[in-house]
Amino acid sequence: MNNLLDDIQKITLMGPGPSCVDDSVLNAMAKDTIGHLDPAFIKIMDTMKGQLKTLLHTENQLTIPVSGTGSAGMESCFVNLIEKGDAVLVLINGVFGMRMQDVATRLGADVDTLEFEWGTPVIVDDVKKQIAKKAYKIVAVVHAETSTGVKNPVAEIGALVKGSDTIYLVDAVTSFGGIEITMDAWGIDVLYSGTQKCLSCPPGLAPISFSEKAVAAIKQRKTKVPNWYLDLTMIMNYWAGATRAYHHTAPINMLYGLYQALYLILEEGEDAVYKRHMDNHLLLVDGLKEIGINMLVDESCRLPMLNSVHIPEGADDAAVRSRLLKEFKIEIGAGLGPLAGKIWRIGLMGHTARPENVEKLLTALKKVL
Amino acid sequence: MNNLLDDIQKITLMGPGPSCVDDSVLNAMAKDTIGHLDPAFIKIMDTMKGQLKTLLHTENQLTIPVSGTGSAGMESCFVNLIEKGDAVLVLINGVFGMRMQDVATRLGADVDTLEFEWGTPVIVDDVKKQIAKKAYKIVAVVHAETSTGVKNPVAEIGALVKGSDTIYLVDAVTSFGGIEITMDAWGIDVLYSGTQKCLSCPPGLAPISFSEKAVAAIKQRKTKVPNWYLDLTMIMNYWAGATRAYHHTAPINMLYGLYQALYLILEEGEDAVYKRHMDNHLLLVDGLKEIGINMLVDESCRLPMLNSVHIPEGADDAAVRSRLLKEFKIEIGAGLGPLAGKIWRIGLMGHTARPENVEKLLTALKKVL
């Protein structure tokens, strides 16, 4: 029988994720599967919680990877906190803010939104005015809006919410591992991420972290969490409880991969990793400018790991991306929503953020355009 | 830095899952990550749908792996079908029937149960009487009850439900890949499974299949599916839609693993795989009998892949399992719920179901007891 896996080619992944994965992470995933209750596996779980806490700069005990992709992380944060009628404010300036709104609405929350132009950041003063008008159980924002390349002022919004009863919930899917996140100092109560962006692990897991205030909110629920699979009160017993009570079978080999990906970041050093992202971002921006390609987002709020660029006049969006993939083995991302056909999204996430990849893309673009 | 992955030892996994994984499946997971919208990946997805349909003996278009473990499969089946107040009948004779009840109740269903003694099968006549009394939207049963080792009469219950408006929902987590499932012939409308049992892939994915009748039920919902991550109306667009619209980033490398695991089963041949499970089960039962260990479940409804045995008098449950793991690198499972401390659960799932493993366990048990 023909085996399709034999045809898989190495692609330089410069889209909005997945990013390039180091061989040591791929090899970690190929280690022998052991039991989810094996003491050797429990030790890996415990160490992984520590890795995540170190990189997020948090003391939160409930800091674990959820068994699903980044969107499962989003789902788990909202479903554990929301009960019918809870007031939620979602700040929207791209696809992932909209997704938060959709998730919270489906769960029966009373959702208000503040919307900002795609490609621009959330305006802190507007948030200040809104939360002065109404008491929210949750204020939610995306740190790195993957659909536009904008960095939102997460620390500044956190300063507004700090000390109140409101739970501050942040989407760190694209930011985690690429730019600084100091969860506790910024007053973030709840955070979720994904593995396939700046952590450079294949997709499949969603690191989350809940502050004591957020855990207390789960415990004060009047109704059971309506999602058994993502019920953190039970998942906590497996990840941190004295008895390690089985909930669902953990995705063992995916967790090996995440352990190794976090190991690599800690080995290289957090600051060095962030600097590598920024250096390569600047290299890319300069190189693109030389060939007449301009950035969508203002320098003041540009993400280093997700570079949205205007598609040059006369270039065929899909044809260029297809040629890059087929002829040059480079993947870049298309625009989403109102930006479809107008921008490309060039990722420099995690392991991808290296000068040789920037050069490779620039060389290819020169040939294709 | 010390790397915990260096300490992982090869364990013969003879518990209730995960099972032993073939090297080719582990190596598949270590293949280079490619994009979730890459045409090469779409081709793998399409082929995988075919592999699953072949093994489940179904024509269901909606036959895909969900991005989570087996319990996410359970969650996705119930959450897509249930709206508040829907009448659901759950047949319970073990932990996983109870879990179904919990999942459906959290979703606001009007749940009735029929309970049967753990270690015995569901009684078809009782089901017949109950469904004559009340019209149910869903009747749900576990095919292979992993907590007891009992095979439930799935085909016989299906015959009762067939032709009615009721949706017949079957948990095939432990049965799929180890015993025959002819989904369409048996009248199963909705089925979910997991990868870490008889498919012998690491945990992390949940194959599901929905009949046209079940898909129509999703489309007739009055309310949106309250779980964004598992909303099949959107996931279908990615797995089968003409545009392949992005929903969430698929767990690429896990899917490589599942593709390879299904490839191996199809290569060996479905009947040969089932025969291998049965042959090794009989070998194990004989060998256990010789050393005075007796089966919990009557021969008429015993599962070949999950063998529940009475813990011999005088044996220390935890100490024996711990010695098997540490000294002999063999994992077997403990009892759950009312059977904790009373039984061991010996798995012969997928790649584990081989004579050398049976011999290895029997030899070890003789030494330890």
UniProtKB/TrEMBL annotation, chains A, B:
Domain Aminotransferase class V positions: 27-335
GO molecular function: alanine-glyoxylate transaminase activity; L-serine-pyruvate transaminase activity
Enzyme class: transferase
EC number annotated for this UniProt entry: 2.6.1.-
Residues annotated for substrate binding in this entry: R345
Protein's name in the database: Putative Aminotransferase, class V (Purine catabolism protein PucG)
Record organism: Desulfamplus magnetovallimortis
Needed co-factor(s): pyridoxal 5'-phosphate
Record's keyword terms, sorted: Aminotransferase, Pyridoxal phosphate, Transferase
Cited SUPFAM superfamilies: PLP-dependent transferases (SSF53383)
UniProt modified residues of type N6-(pyridoxal phosphate)lysine: K197
UniProt xrefs under Pfam families: Aminotran_5 (PF00266)
Family annotation (InterPro entries): Aminotrans_V_dom (IPR000192), Aminotrans_V_PyrdxlP_BS (IPR020578), PyrdxlP-dep_Trfase (IPR015424), PyrdxlP-dep_Trfase_major (IPR015421), PyrdxlP-dep_Trfase_small (IPR015422), SP_NH2Trfase/AEP_transaminase (IPR024169)
Family: Belongs to the class-V pyridoxal-phosphate-dependent aminotransferase family.
PANTHER family attached to this UniProt entry: ALANINE--GLYOXYLATE AMINOTRANSFERASE, AMINOTRANSFERASE CLASS V
Keyword Nucleus among record annotations: no
Domain of life: Bacteria
A GO biological-process term: glycine biosynthetic process, by transamination of glyoxylate
Signal peptide positions on this chain: none
